[in-house]
Specification:
By secondary structure, the protein is an alpha+beta fold. The chain has two domains: 186 residues, no CATH class; 121 residues, no CATH class. Helix content is 40%, strand content 26%. It has nine helices and 20 strands. The strands form eight sheets. It has a four-stranded antiparallel β-sheet with strand order 1-4-11-10, with helices on one face. Strands 14-15-19-18 form a four-stranded mixed β-sheet, with no helix packed on it. The radius of gyration is 22 Å and the shape is globular.
């Protein structure tokens, strides 16, 4: 199927695709402006935003909308979605790419697995490259929050990522629009760090934020402070993401700790000190702890970079790039 054919189907179902085409570029396949002097516009209407739980694999391993979900979509929308993923997604290298990535993770030497374990990859390291799990990972990179749910966004998910790319506009659907010189790039997330981008999307990229690795620290006169990397467990206060904190006797648990933020350089330290103050940790102790976290993460990342150079492989080279991006953000 040619791209113009799927575009015709997309537009007939209410989609908008103006001044764009699909081809290969420096990021792999992606969407590009036809005329760089004119704005691009891509809009996926709500009726084409499919919930991941509506999707299943048939006996041939192809993506299908489950029969019980057909009532939520028109027959034309179902046909479009299934053909789109057959020719421009899952069936066009999506399954192969997810499977190879998972196999490469499993093939990492124990030393690199240990690093990845404390930097957000513990769940992925446990998973075999089954079609079911690869489909789950395939969806992670192709969905967006819409009306408090996760929805897959065909066509828009063909756009590659850049830290300063165009924003997603969510309203009666999902829209990306603006002037671009060549390839259309979107900003997937503003709060993820480089390791979370790697785990979720399987590529190395700079990030505006950096989270601490998983670590436990003994705090004098307080107890043990345990830090995870579960940044989905957060309270949102404007642009600030505040970690969830629990305390059990002499144990404090933080869902995550942001240790660097290029957009708000002083905020991570302030947020950490405020959380520590709620449990009567003196400010001087909080400042020392935060400095220690930064230095510990620097050391971990430097050791990871060195370990990657001692175990050369395509996956190790990717992890080295991710660690270097993370280190740059912290510095």
């Amino acid at each position: 199927m040619e791209f113009q054919e799927i575009l015709t189907q997309f537009r007939s179902l209410g989609g908008v695709a103006e001044n764009l085409t699909w081809r290969q570029g420096t990021h792999g396949s992606g969407l590009f402006a036809v005329n760089p002097r004119l704005p691009v516009r891509l809009h996926v209407p709500e009726q084409l935003l499919v919930a991941p739980q509506w999707v299943e694999l048939d006996e041939a391993g192809s993506i299908r909308i489950a029969a019980k979900s057909h009532s939520s979509l028109s027959a034309k929308a179902v046909a479009f979605f299934e053909q789109y993923h057959q020719f421009f997604g899952w069936g066009n290298g999506g399954l192969k790419s997810a499977t190879e990535h998972q196999r490469d993770l499993q093939a990492l030497p124990p030393q690199l697995k240990n690093f990845l374990h404390i930097l957000g990859g513990a769940e992925e390291l446990k998973q075999k490259p089954t079609a079911k799990y690869c489909l789950q990972k395939y969806f992670v990179a192709r969905q967006i929050g819409f009306k408090s749910e996760s929805r897959l966004m065909p066509m828009v998910e063909l756009i590659n990522h850049a830290p300063d790319g165009l924003p997603y506009l969510v309203g009666d659907g999902v829209t990306v629009t603006g002037l671009v010189k060549d390839e259309i790039l979107a900003r997937y997330h503003s709060h993820l760090d480089s390791f979370h981008f790697f785990i979720n999307y399987h590529f190395a990229t700079p990030a505006h934020a950096a989270l601490s690795c998983e670590v436990s620290v003994d705090v004098p006169d307080v107890g043990t402070l345990t830090i995870a990397r579960n940044d989905h467990l957060a309270d949102i206060l404007g642009t600030i993401r505040i970690p969830k904190m629990t305390k059990d006797r002499a144990q404090m648990n933080l869902s995550f700790v942001e240790i660097a933020n290029k957009h708000h350089p002083s905020q991570p330290r302030k947020t950490f000190a405020s959380l520590m103050a709620t449990h009567d940790v003196p400010d001087a102790v909080s400042q020392t702890l935060f400095d220690g976290l930064i230095e510990h993460n620097r050391q971990v990342l430097k050791e990871l970079i060195q370990a990657c150079r001692c175990h050369p492989s395509a996956m190790a080279k990717s992890l080295e790039k991710v660690a270097s991006f993370q280190l740059t953000t912290i510095n």
